[in-house]
Specification:
Elements: E1 8-11, E2 14-17, H1 28-32, E3 35-37, E4 40-45, E5 48-52, H2 54-67, H3 76-89, E6 95-103, E7 117-124, H4 134-137, E8 139-143, H5 164-176, E9 181-185, E10 191-194, E11 198-203, E12 206-209, H6 220-232, E13 236-238, E14 251-256, E15 260-267, E16 270-271, H7 279-292, E17 302-304
Parallel strand pairs: 8-9, 8-15, 12-13
Antiparallel strand pairs: 1-2, 1-7, 3-6, 4-5, 4-6, 5-17, 6-7, 9-10, 11-12, 11-14, 14-15, 15-16
Length: 307
Amino acid sequence: MAIPQTEYIWKNGEIIGWNDAQIHVLSHVVHYGTSWFEGIRAYETPRGTGIFRLHEHLKRLHNSLKIYNSVLPYSVEELVQACVELVQKNNLKSCYIRPFALRGYGELGIFPLNCPLDVYIAAWEWGKYLGEEALEKGVDVCVASWNRLAPNTLPTLSKAGGNYMNAQLMRIEANTHGYSEAIALSVDGYVSEGSGENIFLVQDGVLYTPPLGASILSGVTRASVLTIAKDLGIPICEIQIPRAMLYTVDEIFFTGTAVEITPVRSVNRITIGDGIVGPITRQVQERFFDCVKNGNDPYGWLTFIGS
């Protein structure tokens, strides 16, 4: 899906034209993958446009750089205002927001810290990541032959661009074999996450999800689902999940900014449950979308434009 162009992008404290957001081919990021990013959705609600968990996403962006001994030159609050300003400037009601930082043109060598750090924010209208029917009917996935990164190789708690080379291999493999997405295992053989999503399983009314130690990203939507589940009285268990459990559980769903709450209907052609969206997945979906689409937000997760 091509990115639909908007009029403006935010760069280093200024609003610039979309086509003016360019980098040099010898920028550090081009050769060594030195970038960090966030993906954030804004929803049109009866209360106006609401950006979902904006502060939490931008705090994670700060932490992603900190792991690499780098510091964003803008505070969370400054970036919050920049995101709001950009959405307003582009006259967007619902959209995807992509704040990111990269090491630019300076020196060309492995050591990154002498290269300038540039910060951008882009925003555009974006549909359903895994297709329009995914939320209602679920998706068919496979277990990737590629493992998720080992804990002491690349830090998965940093949402760094380089990590997604690993994710690309999984997604290419899945698409090649006719699946919508892939599930990665950790180097120890336990369930980790999707190529770009966290994962939840349901068995006998209990909600299972891998812990942070399973080489997962600490997802903002994942954290939101844990809160929703507690409110709904659904038991939660964060444990190492063996691969075999993927084939025997009652329900599976992905979470993330792009996929929101997307059910999985089969893994490696083995049907999950009855092959339809299960009751706990549906409960979580309904509570989540009531918040982000209807603006019924008891958690204070939405930053409303103009409020």
